[in-house]
Amino acid sequence: MVKRTSFEHDPCPVARALDAFGDGWSLLIIREALLGVRRFSEFQARLGMAKNILASRLRALVEHGILEIVPASDGSAYHAYRLTPKGRGAFPILVALRQWSEEFDAHPDEIATVLVDRDGGRPVRKLELHAEDGRLLAPGDTTLQPRSVRKTKKTGARLSSH
Amino acid sequence: MVKRTSFEHDPCPVARALDAFGDGWSLLIIREALLGVRRFSEFQARLGMAKNILASRLRALVEHGILEIVPASDGSAYHAYRLTPKGRGAFPILVALRQWSEEFDAHPDEIATVLVDRDGGRPVRKLELHAEDGRLLAPGDTTLQPRSVRKTKKTGARLSSH
């Protein structure tokens, strides 16, 4: 996928995040890194990507502060890629993508894995969005407000729930 | 952005979701639809996209069952695009992308909006992932298991938290 438009300075935080991830490959690289992958050759083997595309995506992820370059743990001359806190912070994005597929995919039987609680071994719940006071929120219970005047109540457009 | 690889039948649900969304534009179209946008001209004006790209992305979203075509509400010959339940189900993905930017963006002051609880007018909490029994889970508290043998405890790789 070739990026044609930069959302780097877009006022929308969704667009800014999409700018950082660039394309689907970047989120799959982060998925592998969360699973413990650190070496170029291992990313390449697991993702089946062309080396030049993998190299450019890794470079972009390092530039965005999502991965950092560290010495290889085996003491060799190779280096490895490690997630920064910003990179590990993408975990809820991956969970949201996963759960959307689990709920809406036309062929859920083709999904190979389940995200489970390590202690109980049971599937996790769906991600929950709560109000400050703890109430569970649906999309229609939320609204967007301008950041500068967000203390003014109910001025934003209601998020469509129809 | 030009899609070069299809993840449509990938065993990973993250990859499958990325295949459905295709590129950043599709999630921004869904964002606008959640805000109530329905007409081609309005998507075009708000997103500033080239008409041919917008048309191709809308077509793909309809093919994926994320948008559906409905008659225009004004009774004109134009049609409109409405989110299906599958489309509205992308809301947590958009929230996760937003919150990642809010937490990690180098210039959070450039973010124009805040997602608030419609009743209280207060910013929402961060998305939460809970175990079946209610415990709040961090990435390192979760693991992936093969779907077919998921009753076997703790066989998956621990998600990296370092």
UniProtKB/TrEMBL annotation, chains A, B:
Ranges where the HTH hxlR-type domain occurs: 12-109
Signal peptide: none
A Pfam family that the UniProt record links to this protein: HxlR
Keywords per UniProt: DNA-binding, Transcription, Transcription regulation
Region (Disordered): 137-162
Record-linked PROSITE patterns: HTH_HXLR
Any one GO molecular-function label of the UniProt entry: DNA binding
Organism this protein belongs to: Rhodopseudomonas palustris
Basic residues compositional bias, start-end: 148-162
Protein name: Transcriptional regulator
SUPFAM superfamilies xrefs: Winged helix' DNA-binding domain
